[in-house]
Write a structure and sequence with these properties.
By secondary structure, this protein is α/β, with parallel strands linked by helices. The chain has helices spanning 38-42, 48-53, 75-93, 102-105, 112-133, 160-180, 202-223, 247-256, 269-274, 279-288, 315-328, 350-377, 379-387, 394-400, 406-413, 418-424, 430-447, and strands at residues 32-33, 36-37, 44-47, 97-101, 136-141, 184-187, 193-194, 228-231, 241-242, 263-268, 292-296, 337-339. The protein has an eight-stranded parallel barrel with strand order 3-4-5-6-8-10-11-12, surrounded by four helices. The longest helix has 28 residues, at 350-377. The two termini are 30 Å apart. The relative contact order is 0.11. The structure holds D-xylose (XLS) and nickel (II) ion (NI) (2 copies). One nickel (II) ion (NI) is lined by residues 188, 232, 268, 296, 340. One nickel (II) ion binds next to α9.
C-alpha cells in the first residue's frame, strides 16, 4: 500500500490495551455475528465532504485541518490528488464504501457544461480506483445548497431558472451514480424549506419538489439506474424550517405525492435530535412504514443545538440503532452506515481523522454485539409480546380483526371494576427493563 497518509493500516487490537486509539477493539470485519460478518451488517462508508474537504471551520474560526495534500494548489490537480488519498484512507481504515456530493469531488466551472467536464475527469479517476480496490459507492448526491445561486432553495426555489439549473445538475449526478454503481441515491433538502412564511408559497414549493422527484425517477428509469432513492430528513439548518422535517413528515410527503413506493429514508442521528427525537425513534418510524433505507451515523452534543456532526461514541444509542437493524434484518435493502461526521477543531492532524472513524466503527461494532446478545435471548421481543398479549385472544382479537364495535366493547367495560382495569395495565416494569439493558451492555462487552 502506498503511504500517502502518515498512518499504518488500522489493526484489530482487541480489549487487552484499552487506550490504543489507532486500533479496533471490537470491529472485526469477518467476525460472524447473528449470522452475518460484521462488515455486512455495518457497511461502513466514509463521507468525502467531511473527511477530505472539510477544513474544520466553525462560525467563529477558520479551518484548523492539516491534510497530506495541502501542498497541492491547483484546484483540478487537488481534486484528482484527493481521490488517491481518499482510496488509501478507505483501505487503511478497512471501510468498504464511500459517499459524496457532486461538488465535493471537483471544482465548479463558469457554466454547467464546464462543471460537468471537471466532474467527469474526477469520476474517471474514481472509477479506476474503485475497480482496483473493490470499494463501493454507498450513495452519491447533489449539492443543491452550497453555491450562492441556491440561496432560496433549488427544487423549491421561487425562481424557475434556478429550478431548471438544479434539474440539469441533478441529471448529471444520476448519470454519475449509474457510472459508479451507486447502491443508493440521496436527496437532502438543505435549502428546500423556508426562512419566512410571509414571502413563501408553501404549497407551490412542495408541488414543485414532488415534480422534481418525479422527473428524477423518470430519468433514472430512462438510463437504467437502479439505485434506491433516499430522502434524508432534517428539521432545520440552514433553513428555518426544512420541508423534510423528520421521518414522519417525509413519509407523509411521499405518500401525498404518490412517491412512497420509490423512496426510502436516510436517517441521521444529529438530525433526529434537532427534530426533538431520538435516533431510535426516527429509525422505528421508518421501519414501521417499510421505509428504512440507510443511516448517517453521527451524534450531536447535548449542550449545543446545531448539527455538529460528531463521530458517534454513544454506546447506548448505537445499541438501540443496531437493535433496530437486527430486528429489520439489514439497514434497509442497500443501506450502510455513513459517517456524516467530522473531528473537532482541536483534532486537526491526519491521525485524528483516523481516530474519529475508529471510534465510530468501534462504537457501532460494540452496539452490534450488544444488540445481537439481546436478540439471541429474545429479551425485548418477549417483553413486547407479553405487553400486547391481551390482543391475541378474546376481546383483543375482535379489535384487531375488525369485528369489534363500540357496542361490543361497551358491553365488556360496563361492569369491569376499576381495580381489575388498573391491574391489567401493570406489565411494564420499565425501570427494570432499563437496568437489564445496562446489564446486557456490560455483559456483551465483557465477552468482547
Ligand atoms: C447535512 C446533511 C448532509 C447530507 C448529504 O446536514 O447531513 O451532509 O447527508 O447532503
Ligand atoms: Ni447527512
Ligand atoms: Ni447532517
Amino acid at each position: 500500500m502506498a503511504d500517502l497518509w502518515n498512518v499504518d493500516p488500522i489493526p484489530f487490537v482487541g480489549t487487552s490495551d484499552l487506550t490504543q486509539g489507532l486500533g479496533f477493539h471490537y470491529y472485526q470485519p469477518d467476525r460472524v455475528v447473528a449470522g452475518k460478518p460484521m462488515k455486512d451488517w455495518l457497511r461502513f462508508a466514509v463521507a468525502y465532504w467531511h473527511s477530505f474537504d472539510q477544513r474544520l471551520v466553525d462560525p467563529f474560526g477558520d479551518g484548523t485541518a492539516q491534510r497530506p495534500y495541502d501542498h497541492v494548489t491547483d484546484p483540478m490537480a487537488l481534486a484528482l490528488a484527493k481521490v488517491d488519498y481518499a482510496f488509501e484512507f478507505y483501505a487503511k481504515l478497512g471501510a468498504g464504501f464511500f459517499c459524496f456530493h457532486d461538488r465535493d469531488i471537483a471544482p465548479e466551472g463558469d457554466t454547467l457544461r464546464e462543471t460537468n467536464a471537471n466532474l467527469d475527469r474526477v469520476v474517471d479517476h474514481i472509477a479506476e480506483l474503485q475497480a482496483d480496490s473493490g470499494v463501493k459507492l454507498l450513495w452519491n448526491t447533489s449539492s443543491l445548497f452550497t453555491n450562492p445561486r441556491f440561496v432560496s432553495g433549488a427544487a423549491t426555489s421561487p425562481f424557475a431558472e434556478i429550478y431548471a439549473y438544479a434539474a440539469g445538475q441533478l441529471k448529471h449526478s444520476l448519470e454519475i451514480a449509474k457510472r459508479l454503481g451507486a447502491e443508493n441515491y440521496v436527496f437532502w433538502g438543505g435549502r428546500e424549506g423556508y426562512e419566512n412564511l410571509w414571502n413563501t408559497d408553501l404549497r407551490r414549493e412542495q408541488d414543485h419538489q414532488a415534480r422534481f422527484f418525479r422527473m428524477c425517477l423518470d430519468y433514472a428509469k430512462e438510463i437504467g439506474l437502479d439505485a434506491q432513492f433516499l430522502i434524508e430528513p432534517k428539521p432545520k439548518e440552514p433553513t428555518t424550517h426544512q420541508y423534510d422535517f423528520d421521518a414522519a413528515t417525509a413519509i407523509a410527503f411521499l405518500k401525498t405525492y404518490g412517491l412512497d413506493d420509490d423512496f426510502k429514508l436516510n436517517l441521521e442521528g444529529n438530525h433526529a435530535n434537532l427534530a426533538g427525537h431520538t435516533y431510535q425513534h426516527e429509525i422505528r418510524v421508518a421501519r414501521a412504514a417499510g421505509m428504512l433505507g440507510s443511516l448517517d451515523a453521527n451524534q450531536g452534543d447535548k449542550l449545543i443545538g446545531w448539527d455538529i456532526d460528531e463521530f458517534p461514541s454513544d454506546l447506548y444509542e448505537a445499541t438501540a440503532t443496531m437493535w433496530e437493524v437486527l430486528a429489520e434484518g439489514s439497514i434497509g435493502p442497500h443501506g450502510g452506515l455513513n459517517f456524516d461526521s467530522k473531528p473537532r477543531r482541536t483534532s486537526f492532524t491526519e491521525e485524528d481523522l483516523f481516530r474519529g472513524h475508529i471510534v465510530g466503527m468501534d462504537t457501532y461494532a460494540a452496539g452490534l454485539l450488544i444488540a445481537a446478545k439481546l436478540h439471541e435471548d429474545g429479551y425485548i421481543e418477549n417483553l413486547v409480546a407479553d405487553r400486547y398479549s391481551s390482543y391475541d385472544s378474546g376481546i383483543g382479537t375482535t379489535i384487531e380483526d375488525g369485528t369489534a364495535t363500540l357496542t361490543s366493547l361497551e358491553a365488556e367495560s360496563l361492569d369491569a371494576p376499576q381495580s381489575a382495569l388498573l391491574a391489567a395495565t401493570h406489565s411494564d416494569h420499565l425501570e427494570s427493563v432499563k437496568a437489564t439493558i445496562n446489564n446486557y451492555i456490560i455483559a456483551a462487552l465483557a465477552e468482547g
